[in-house]
Write a structure and sequence with these properties.
Elements (H helix, E strand, L loop, with lengths): L1 H10 L19 H15 L16 H12 L1
Length: 74
């Protein structure tokens, strides 16, 4: 999870991702942010995110993103 928090801080340093929920619904993350996060996740974790997983619910919180990452690792 530490790796993910570092990625998120690089993309949006002003956001406290530890407690944030509804990141997409509240407009904290936009499509450009999500593309940047996906790119960084794929590079950092050495995985490929399935295009079907790229949906708003998977980017609402750091926990949701971590679940998506764990699915891609399996």
């Amino acid at each position: 999870m530490d790796k993910l928090f570092k990625i998120l801080k690089r993309v949006k340093p002003e956001v406290d991702f530890t407690y944030s929920r509804g990141l997409v619904d509240e407009g904290v993350l936009d499509s450009i942010d999500i593309v940047s996060i996906i790119s960084e996740i794929e590079e950092e974790y050495g995985i490929e995110i399935d295009p079907d997983e790229i949906e708003p619910n998977n980017f609402q919180s750091a926990e949701a993103m971590m679940e998506m990452i764990q699915k891609a690792i399996r």
